[in-house]
Amino acid sequence: MAVKTANVTARIQPEIKESAEAILENLGIPVSVFIDMTYRQVIATNGVPFDLKAPRAISTRDTMTDSQFDSVMENGLMQAKSDDSKAAKDVFAELRKRV
Questions:
Q1: Which residues are within 8 A (CB) of 30 and not within 5 positions of it... i.e. 6 or more apart?
Q2: How many CA atoms lie within 13 A of 22 on its CB side?
Q3: Which among 76, 43, 72, 44 has a CA at the least distance from the CA of 60?
Q4: Within 13 Å, how many C-alpha atoms sit on residue 67's CB side?
Q5: Rounded CA gap, 77 and 73, in Å?
Q6: 91 phi and psi, to 5 degrees?
């Protein structure tokens, strides 16, 4: 077995690191093994081993039909009437995860 002597250093957002490491821990995969596996897949596929796609654009009023807009507004009204809402800070936190 080859001796492992190379280091990989990367700076990423702490929340991303923590979330990914928690998932890897649940899977029983050490971070170093995951990085090694990923590098091996880059070599085996001669590229990135997953699809890289731009996220879908968020629908705006300009891109919606009148019926789509009415449906969005109706859902919002129903949520408001049933007090099914979220704090603004939570909504923005979810949006940051998507970007």
A1: 24
A2: 6
A3: 72
A4: 0
A5: 6
A6: -65, -45
CA 99, CA 31: separation in Å to the nearest integer?
23
Query: In a structure prediction context, what are the per-residue pLDDT tens digits for the chain, which is 99 residues long?
Result: 677 789 999 999 999 999 999 999 999 999 999 999 999 999 999 999 988 877 677 788 888 899 999 999 999 899 888 987 788 888 888 888 876
19 C-beta neighbours (distance < 10 Å), count: 12
Would the pTM count as exceeding 0.70? no
Closest CA to 35 of 16, 15, 13, 20: 20
Q: How many helices (H) and strands (E) does the chain have?
A: 4, 0
Tokens of 61: 């009023």
